């Protein structure tokens, strides 16, 4: 089987939600998460979709998300990160590949993602056109250490496996 593996990573500073601060509403994997803090970002700041998009693009040997969708382009201001993700999935399909598996880790001190993990997995599976059993999301904390542990940032790691469509 012809396969491609890609790794993605993203990190966003978290600030109080506007109008109190400059944070946007917190979204992970296309799912709204209740929180008083959110990412400071040019787009909607969905770090999970950004990391997985980068993993897909990387597996194809293509430019990363920052090159494909630069924050200097006004069209990307407040843009739904699902657009980036779906574009990467389309590029994979055009190259003859489909998403076989997604494995991701969200490092976030608070809020805990356990209560919404199922909804996040379902959202990712639907966006990727993959079976739910092939999409995983793990939640970790930073044990109160550093900026993530103080609730000042969210970090995401993702690995994607693409397989040749026959």
Can you give a write-up of this model?
By secondary structure, the chain is an alpha+beta fold. The protein has a single domain (3-164), classed as 2-Layer Sandwich (60s Ribosomal Protein L30, Chain: A), CATH 3.30.1330.50. Helices cover 28% and strands 30% of the residues. The chain is built from 5 helices and 7 strands; from the N terminus they run ββββαααβαβαβ. 39% of the residues are buried.
Number of strands: 7
Named CATH architecture: 2-Layer Sandwich
Taking the alpha carbons of the first and last residues, their distance comes to 10 Å
Report the radius of gyration as a whole number of Å: 15 Å
Which residues sit in consecutive blocks of at least 5 with pLDDT less than 50? none
Task: Please write the CATH class name.
Answer: Alpha Beta
CATH topology: 60s Ribosomal Protein L30, Chain: A
N-to-C SSE string, H for helix and E for strand: EEEEHHHEHEHE
Structural class: alpha+beta
Question: Would you kindly provide a brief summary of this structure?
Answer:
This protein has 166 residues and is an alpha+beta fold. The protein has one domain (3-164): 60s Ribosomal Protein L30, Chain: A.
Topology (SSEs and partners):
Elements: E1 3-16, E2 27-28, E3 31-32, E4 37-39, H1 47-59, H2 65-68, H3 81-94, E5 97-107, H4 117-128, E6 135-140, H5 146-149, E7 153-164
Parallel strand pairs: 5-6
Antiparallel strand pairs: 1-4, 1-7, 2-3, 5-7
């Amino acid at each position: 089987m012809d396969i491609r593996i890609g790794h993605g990573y993203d990190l966003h500073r978290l600030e109080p939600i506007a109008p109190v601060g400059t944070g946007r509403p917190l979204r992970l994997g296309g799912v709204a998460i209740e929180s008083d803090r959110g990412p400071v970002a040019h787009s909607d700041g969905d770090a999970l979709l950004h990391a997985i998009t980068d993993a897909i693009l990387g597996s194809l040997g293509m430019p990363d998300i920052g090159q494909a969708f630069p924050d200097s382009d006004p069209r990307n201001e407040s843009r739904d990160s699902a657009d980036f993700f779906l574009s990467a999935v389309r590029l994979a399909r055009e190259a003859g590949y489909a998403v076989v598996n997604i494995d991701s880790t969200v490092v976030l001190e608070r809020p805990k993602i356990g209560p919404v993990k199922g909804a996040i997995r379902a959202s990712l599976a639907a966006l990727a056109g993959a079976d739910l059993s092939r999409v995983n999301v793990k939640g970790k904390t930073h044990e109160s250490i550093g900026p993530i542990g103080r609730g000042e940032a969210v970090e995401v790691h993702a690995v994607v496996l693409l397989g040749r469509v026959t």
